[in-house]
């Protein structure tokens, strides 16, 4: 078995990967705005919006856990998507329907980025194992 992310120090891993994840999510927000014919925000505005989305979803997750309502498809997927759309609708000059479309496209782009990075990591680990 090759090296995995579990073999590294968690603090250094967070320090390296959190800014990369925020930057990728901000880029995905810009691309999804362009895809949905909405004026894309500048990069730092997109970063601020992504951080606001993360904070809103953390508060939402905490509230759902404290009330015991965190189980099921609604609290796991639909309510965070609606919260994300609400933050996008407030942070960008767009309508709620366009914000929901931007959210769906952003989720798809982030999934592609995640699977692309996971594939790249496995490719690198496999190539080192073959040496």
UniProtKB/TrEMBL annotation:
The keyword Membrane applies. The chain crosses the membrane at residues 44-64, 76-93, 99-120. Keywords: Membrane, Transmembrane, Transmembrane helix. This is Uncharacterized protein. It comes from Lacipirellula limnantheis.
């Amino acid at each position: 078995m090759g090296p995995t992310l579990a073999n590294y120090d968690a603090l250094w891993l967070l320090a390296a990967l959190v800014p990369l994840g925020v930057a990728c999510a901000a880029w995905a927000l810009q691309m999804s705005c362009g895809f949905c014919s909405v004026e894309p925000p500048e990069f730092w505005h997109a970063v601020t919006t992504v951080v606001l989305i993360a904070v809103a979803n953390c508060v939402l997750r905490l509230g759902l856990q404290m009330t015991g309502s965190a189980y099921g498809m609604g609290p796991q997927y639909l309510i965070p998507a609606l919260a994300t759309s609400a933050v996008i609708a407030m942070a960008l000059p767009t309508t709620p329907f366009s914000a929901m479309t931007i959210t769906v496209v952003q989720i798809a782009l982030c999934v592609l980025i995640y699977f692309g990075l996971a594939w790249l990591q496995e490719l690198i680990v496999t190539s080192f194992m073959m040496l």
